[in-house]
């Protein structure tokens, strides 16, 4: 299984065959995770450090579980209370990490490009767990695996991404991945939450939910971050839900077998109706959580293979 990259910093550098390699290996890890043993040895003897400069219970827990199931020594560094508060630069942090000889570094950072900078300075494989408004590659990959398992394919689907596109690294990574896999992407949201020049990404843009959802195979809702609600981007939560929240009436415009997704955590009654979120016939939100562990196992496995090959060579 070929994966030529030293790091996983974003979807942008990945060719379609790289994406498929991760998803195919993740399928094997879905099977492992559903077995009684749940443990492999792909990362045996390796050290994984999780550095989350932004809090994220779901992503950090998923990466931690993925590393432990593959036999890595996993350490979580509490970056919010770390040396950075005392003025340490990212470069100093990288030098400190090099002295610890980690093998895999999982990083979430509020600044776009910070993870890439770290990757240039450390002597290990780096995985981007979300950087600013830039990318969140493993989220897009787990979304892709969820879609592929539900629909049997990733190409030639009509997929709607709805909500706060402008501030969403999840949306950016999904737009890149789904476009690369030859699916058509529609973006739906208020003009205030749509980035300038977004049409250049080869997507269709709608500010009307019903028109945007007409005939789609997948409805992917995005979290409306509380900090955006106070910034004049939307009139009110109630008005937002009325126009852009997913309820049964709006979902009725999608295909009868359309699936509903959300990266979590959800604001029920703001982005999505609670009954839709819990509808086992339409919602794959819990599947996304399960696929997250398998995808992160696959990504770390492939990067570890490359790391060992480089060190051996």
TrEMBL record:
Belongs to the aspartate/ornithine carbamoyltransferase superfamily. ATCase family. L-aspartate binds at residues 86, 169, 223. Residues 157-302 form the Aspartate/ornithine carbamoyltransferase Asp/Orn-binding domain. It holds the Pfam family OTCace_N. Keywords: Pyrimidine biosynthesis, Transferase. PROSITE patterns: CARBAMOYLTRANSFERASE (PS00097). Pathway: Pyrimidine metabolism; UMP biosynthesis via de novo pathway; (S)-dihydroorotate from bicarbonate: step 2/3. This is Aspartate carbamoyltransferase. It catalyses: carbamoyl phosphate + L-aspartate = N-carbamoyl-L-aspartate + phosphate + H(+). GO terms for cellular component: cytosol. Coiled coil: none annotated. InterPro entries: Asp/Orn_carbamoyltranf_P-bd, Asp/Orn_carbamoylTrfase, Asp/Orn_carbamoylTrfase_sf, Asp_carbamoyltransf, Asp_carbamoyltransf_Asp/Orn-bd. Reversibly catalyzes the transfer of the carbamoyl group from carbamoyl phosphate (CP) to the N(epsilon) atom of ornithine (ORN) to produce L-citrulline. GO terms for biological process: 'de novo' pyrimidine nucleobase biosynthetic process; 'de novo' UMP biosynthetic process; amino acid metabolic process.
């Amino acid at each position: 299984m070929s994966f030529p990259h030293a790091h996983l910093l974003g979807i942008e550098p990945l060719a379609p065959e790289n994406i498929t390699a991760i998803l195919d290996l993740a399928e094997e890890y879905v099977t492992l995770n559903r077995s009684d043993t749940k443990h492999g040895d792909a990362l045996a003897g390796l050290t994984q450090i999780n550095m989350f400069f932004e809090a994220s219970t779901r992503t950090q827990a998923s990466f931690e579980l993925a590393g432990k199931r593959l036999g890595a020594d996993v350490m979580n560094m509490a970056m919010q209370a770390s040396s950075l508060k005392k003025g340490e630069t990212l470069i100093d942090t990288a030098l400190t990490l090099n002295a610890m000889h980690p093998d895999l570094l999982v990083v979430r950072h509020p600044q776009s490009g910070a993870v890439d900078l770290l990757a240039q300075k450390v002597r290990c494989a780096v995985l981007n767990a979300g950087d600013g408004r830039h990318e969140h590659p493993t989220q897009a990959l787990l979304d892709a695996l969820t879609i592929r398992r539900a629909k049997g394919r990733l190409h030639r689907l009509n997929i709607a991404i709805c909500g706060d596109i402008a501030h969403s690294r999840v949306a950016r990574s999904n737009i890149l991945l789904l476009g690369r896999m030859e699916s058509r992407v529609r973006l739906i949201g208020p003009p205030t939450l749509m980035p300038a020049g977004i049409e250049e990404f080869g997507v269709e843009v709608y500010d009307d939910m019903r028109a945007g959802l007409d005939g789609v195979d997948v409805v992917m809702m995005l979290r409306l971050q509380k900090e955006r609600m106070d910034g004049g981007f939307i009139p009110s939560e109630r008005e937002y839900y009325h126009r852009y929240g997913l309820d049964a009436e709006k979902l009725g415009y999608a295909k009868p077998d359309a699936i509903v997704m959300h990266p979590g955590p959800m604001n029920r009654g703001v982005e999505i109706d609670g009954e839709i979120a819990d509808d086992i016939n339409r919602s794959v939100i819990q599947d996304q959580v399960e696929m997250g562990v398998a995808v992160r196992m696959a990504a770390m496995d492939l990067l570890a293979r490359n790391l060992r090959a480089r060190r051996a060579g």
